[in-house]
Structures are given as structure tokens and as C-alpha cells.
Amino acid sequence: MFEKEPPDNPALLALGNLIAGSHCAASTQGAVTNMGIIATQNLIKHLEVSVS
């Protein structure tokens, strides 16, 4: 995982045993599904408090 994608290091990228990729764990199907579920749960909690 790099702060800047891709890294500005040609020597690093020239290594024959390096596999580099962007960090995309938040883009999995499960993560996206969970984001929607959590957002909906938070909205319901907010509306329940607002109505009370």
C-alpha cells in the first residue's frame, strides 16, 4: 500500500520479485454491501431519535 499511487521509485518498480498494487479493500462486494447496510442502520437510528 502506498500513500501515492503508483510510487515514484523506478528502482523499486524494476525489482523482478515485486508485485505492487493499489489498496482497494473497500471496493469488495462485501464491503460495499456492508457500507449500505451500516448507512441504512445509522439513518434508522437517527430518525428514531429525531421522532422521539
Distance between the first and last residues' Cα: 45 Å
Q: Roughly what fraction of the amino acids lie in strands?
A: under 5%
Give the overall silhouette.
rod-shaped
Give the structural class: mainly alpha
> Level of helix content?
40-55%
Radius of gyration: 20 Å
Report on the biggest sheet: none
Question: What would you note in describing this structure?
Answer:
With 52 residues, the protein is mainly α. It has one domain (10-51). The chain is 52% helix and 0% strand. The protein is built from two helices and no strands. It has helices at 10-13, 29-51. The protein is rod-shaped and about 60 Å long. The model has no long low-confidence stretch (mean pLDDT 82).
List keywords for this structure.
about 50 residues, mainly alpha
Entry summary:
The protein has two helices and no strands.
Summarize the helices and strands and which ones pair or pack.
Elements: H1 10-13, H2 29-51
